Amino acid sequence: MSRRLAVVSAALDIQTGGGEVLAGAEKLPPAMAATESWPPNVAKATRLLHPRGVVVVADPDEPPLPFADEAFDLVTSRHPATVWWSEIARVLRPGGTYFAQHVGPASVWELVEYFLGPQPEARRKRHPDDESAAAEAAGLEIVDVRAERLGMEFFDVGAVIYFLRKVIWTVPGFTVEQYRGRLRELHEKIEDEGPFIARSSRTLIEARKPD
């Protein structure tokens, strides 16, 4: 992403979070914008990115993006909660690129199903094939798609609780009180068998707007 940002004239980072990933780029284009919906992150990203000339826009993560047609050479994102392909295609210039890392299908599913039981229908959500098809339906050409599953080790039940309280969409509505029994069982399982292993799922997507 850093290499790409260094050679374009205008770019947009969608759902930038606190701006940490974008701030890691060595060189930013003359026109650089970022969107974010969560007010604490908007404030954090503003403090971090404004000194580098980035315009941070508070945006509800719903169409339309608050930018004109064909405004950007490059649109990036890391872990967007929602992907509005038609809007991405609209704000890209002909020949422009969308380059992003998405959360992939069945991410940390071992933990999800430990607490919620089998979730066969939800397992397919965010599948790379489906996202590629949606991008193409919006008029983009798929250049590259790479999927990866990466190991996560939970060495104690406290780490599980911390993760589920921070990544709140993993087990919606999670509380220690509600899942005390399963947590105790998991504690004993870790004590007897070692770390609880889960797999995070990530997809790298590169799509291009035709000239």
TrEMBL record:
InterPro entries: 23S_rRNA_MeTrnsfrase_RlmA (IPR052939), Methyltransf_11 (IPR013216), SAM-dependent_MTases_sf (IPR029063). Residues 12-99 form the Methyltransferase type domain. Keywords: Methyltransferase, Transferase. GO terms for molecular function: S-adenosylmethionine-dependent methyltransferase activity. The keyword Membrane does not apply. One of its GO terms (biological process) is methylation. The keyword Transferase applies. This is Methyltransferase type 11.
